[in-house]
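Journal club prep — side note

Before the paper discussion, L.F. wants everyone to see what a predicted structure for a comparable chain looks like in token form. Sequence:
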Amino acid sequence: MDFLSATLNRVKPSPTIAVTTKAAELKAAGRDIIGLGAGEPDFDTPENIREAAKAAIDAGKTRYTPVDGIPELKRAICDKFLRENRLTYSPDQISVGTGGKQILYNALMATLNPGDEVVIPAPYWVSYPDMVLLAGGTPVVAEASMQTGFKLTADQLESAITDKTKWLIFNSPSNPTGAGYTWEELKQLTDVLLRHPDVWIMSDDMYEHLTFGDFTFCTPAEVEPLLYDRTLTVNGVSKAYAMTGWRIGYAGGPKHLIAAMRKIQSQSTSNPSSVSQWAAVEALTGPQDFLGPNRALFQRRRDLVVAMLNDCAGIHCPVPDGAFYVYPSIAECIGKTSAGGVAITDDEAFATALLEETGVAVVFGAAFGLSPNFRISYATGDDELRDACTRIRTFCAGLS
């Protein structure tokens, strides 16, 4: 009898974590490695947030808390949703979890039955399909190409929905492409969803505050208030507040869904870290003046990386609207051979050869559901980004 669960065979480890781990191992072995796989800001959590955590420890706020969040944090989240997204929630409509990933997973576990389908636009964050599979559902991938700016059209969404569809997972700005939906583009999608009253919307807004130029963020329940009662609006403090390791994600949604998610969490992890919750209160209620300079920093890095990658033979890199990723196409590199003799048969082979021959770690596009591409996280220093892009240019020039 097999000791391991059959469910385990339905999922795979996170490719982004695998790339980051591989890069760290090579670096520890003495290799000159530049890791561009991890999706986290390279600067410290703001001082006022760190001080709030220290104060919480000194005040003895280190015990169990309510399962899905302390009242102070839930109130801060309600205020945030109203202030920034024009969404009105009460504290019993708020769930706080150990990162945004747990919030998404709780919602899927609480709602999916065998045969239920979840529409996932591709390119997608690597964890979406596997979380659906773990929860017993069926991921339905709707491919958004570079020709549509990596954004799903209304016709594509309509075609993907069946009588078995329970959720649409929506992410803007997107990981891995940085593509963001304008109000008008999102309204076209919400118009489709209005015609399908049994389909719920899971909106992953984690990169809300990382947008560039004239792009203005919006979220589905804000664009179409008639969808409010079947939308779970998910966010967190990880990216905008440089708090990836603090592990606090949250969501607003209908009371019965939030209660079901609370039940799941009560029998899995119970409450998120008490100290992290108090830090998140300060993040959401404290000074927000650093967000603008951080956006400007990431936009400068974006422009640097896009320009340098578009100077590489065989690479075409669109300009993203937000987040801190680029998702260039390497279609013109497929079928060639690297200077080290590796056949570039697909984007995974490209990424593997790039790491072995130049020491630059990126994530191959197949992991995100759309090839032939790769993802770079430019949440690292300018000098490293220049060095990495120079190595990529040399690698591409050596393809034959």
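L.F.'s comment for the group: The two ends are 50 Å apart (CA to CA). Keep this in mind when we get to the figures.
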